[in-house]
Each structure stands twice: as structure tokens, then as C-alpha cells.
């Protein structure tokens, strides 16, 4: 972990430090005001943005999240050189979330509140992140096409592996091209494009004092909101395979922030891109000493996951179609 002068820093706060424990992503401080977490932000602009949406959510009435503790001179963070530093309360008594349909609905409402708060910020240009998402999809398609084109020149071992997995390449390339095309051609209202974390996950939810608590986001990788939602729904379904939880999340989300038809198209495009299959397919041909059986087993698992995602995509598409029919009626 990065070295900083903790003694100098802690003097900025109204707390006396008793003990310091370095953790993987922060410092745990035992103080006379209870346990605190000290986080170092590589990007000060992301830290300021994070402060903005956290306080905005608190003003909306949602306080079950980590807020930045203010210094003696009432500042929410400390700048040391180019680095930003924040202090938050450490939650000792957290419990794992037990997934239910009602809890999924609550998660949807909270994420929509968070997105509404992040949408208020104009610190980052959403168009830049949207273009990056489009460019990344297109570049992965090109990489896959080039990779397939070079396999015939890799000798007999690669030829044997290719024979074992060759049936995967046509549908893989077709899906990648289709998803990239959807992202390129989507007619999204620029008012619906705004910057969020890019990837919320189940790890961001815990229970604190029997209440749902939004946790983490100290080192986010920014992207657009639709990618955030798509990634979370994909993860949620792969873990539980419960479409009722998917609908509940979206119902809760749309109570706060309704999704347009174009946004549903983006959800499908982001969900459907077969990154896991593509990565494991490359790994099959990588010479790293790993037993071939293990690589093929992981590839098979990735294919099964993609098949499950296909069921989710079909459900999302039906939901979008149903909403469009209702709007026309």
C-alpha cells in the first residue's frame, strides 16, 4: 500500500489514532471516536465526484452508505500532492445479504437513486465514456477475427485444439459483431447518457443493523449507467437464475428512473457480449503449462454461463416489448 504520513494526516481530523492496520484497499484506524477507514484516491476528480453523489443521496433521505468524514476545518477530504484522502466510518457488524424478490426491488430503487445523484454531476463527459464502450466492443471483434485468422499458422498442437473448439468460433464472432453493431447503431438520447461506476456488483450490498447498506466504490472504473445496470443484472441472474429477482430489480429501478426502449437495447448489447467465452477460448491456446483439461473445463463453464445469459436476454427483450406495447395502447 502507498506510503503516507499518517500522523500528519490524522491531525486534520477530530480523532486520536490508537492503532493502524493496513488492509488490502485501505487503512483501518482504531480511534477514540470508533473505527475508521482511510482511503487513498489515485484520482482526485473521481473522489470529488464520489463525494458529490454520496451527499446527494443523503439529501434524498438515503443514509445507509459510507459518507466522507469532515476534517477540523470542515473539508470532506484531504489533498496530499496529487492524491486525495478520505475517512469513513468502518462498519464492524455487517451481515451478508439474503437474496429475496423484495430485496432485489429495494436494490433497484437504491441504484436508481444513486444514478439520479450521479446524473446531476457534470464533472465527467458521458459522451467520452460512451465512445469508449463502443470502441472497446469494436476492437474486441477485430481481435477475435485476427486471432482466428492466425490459428492455422500455430503448428500441430494449436491445430488439435482448434479442432476441439472450432464449432465455437462462428457463433462467437456472430454474437460479438451483433452486440458491437447494437452499440454503434443505438439511437440513444444523450440526456440518458451519464457517468456511473460502470460495474456495481453483489459485493456492494451488505446488511448493517438489519438495513440494506450500499458499500464500497472507492476505486471505481467509470462508464455509462446502462453498462452498470446490465452488468449487475447479468451477475444477479448467473448466481441465482431467478427471473423474478430481475423483474423486481427493474421494477424498483424504474419507479425512480424509467428506462427508454433505446436503453433496453443497450442493456441487451452489454449483457450479450460474450467476453468470458472469448477470454477462455484464447486461454485454450495459451502455452502456460496449465493442463489442457482444466482450460477446456473453464471454457465449457463459460459456454454454459452464456447460455444462461441468453435466457436473461430473452426475458429482458420480452419485458421491453411488453412495455412498448403498453405505451402504444
TrEMBL record:
Keywords associated with the record: Transferase
GO cellular component: endospore-forming forespore
Domain of life: Bacteria
Zinc listed as a keyword: no
GO MF term (any one): transferase activity
Protein name (database record): Phosphotransferase
